[in-house]
Design a protein that fits this description.
alpha/beta; 4 helices; homodimer; Transcription Regulator spoIIAA; five-stranded mixed beta sheet
Chain lengths: 137, 137
């Protein structure tokens, strides 16, 4: 298998990582995800790693890369379902996944994404309103 | 990997099959899914097979089994993302997946499930209403 399927849910993309991320698979995933964000105008990316029990610095870096790429494309990334052992390993490896949002499971991750997008939309609207207030009447 | 993760979305469960279904994995999936339907009181099961490019009679039977088990537990099963080659192979193998609903992608599958559950709820309500009408006034 050379590709991990990317599922579309409304404004979000969902990826379930079930296998070890060897180099080619990871590079394909990065590439496919960025293209999918662009194609579907996605606002959020959910990465489920509940099936991942072993993590290394390569996989940590890949997740960080995906989050950074998505942010540049105006999409938030939430990593869900992390096993405790994986969290321990990531911190011990010195990879605290800075800038990556996390949630306990897919439902909570989806809620977090909706909140983030809602908040952004709200703050944009609030900012626009404030700008209006600044205008001379 | 001995388990395929089962993701919960509201009343639905989502399973993405990305690897070859050898015996043990398939039996674990059947078992886990039936338990998850019971535990989460799920009304629908979505099985995404967009990453499956090769299918055999074993996998065809497993999908049929899951659908039958789910139906007994009052949950509908929708298989989504089937590749054309897989559909051809299934029919040539004499496994037309009778009783399994299918949809082109996850979004359409989710809509189909919602419609099915809505319809059932509606027909239950309609039946209840008709029953009411039968009552002497």
């Amino acid at each position: 298998m050379d590709r991990i399927p990317i599922l579309k849910f409304g404004h979000f993309l969902l990826v379930t990582i079930q296998v070890d991320m060897y180099d080619r698979l990871a590079l394909n995933l990065e590439n496919d995800l960025v293209n999918a964000v662009s194609k579907h105008e996605a606002r959020g990316v959910l990465i489920d790693i509940s099936a991942v029990s072993i993590v290394d610095s390569f996989m940590g870096r890949i997740i960080g890369n995906i989050a950074t790429m998505s942010r540049i494309m105006d999409a938030e990334t939430v990593v869900v379902g992390m096993q405790p052992a994986v969290a321990i390993t990531l911190v011990e490896l010195g990879l605290p996944l800075a800038g990556v949002h996390t949630a306990l499971n897919v439902e909570k991750g989806m809620a977090l994404l909706q909140e983030k997008i809602g908040l952004n939309a709200h703050s944009d609207a609030a900012r626009a309103e404030e700008d209006d207030d600044d205008q001379p009447e």
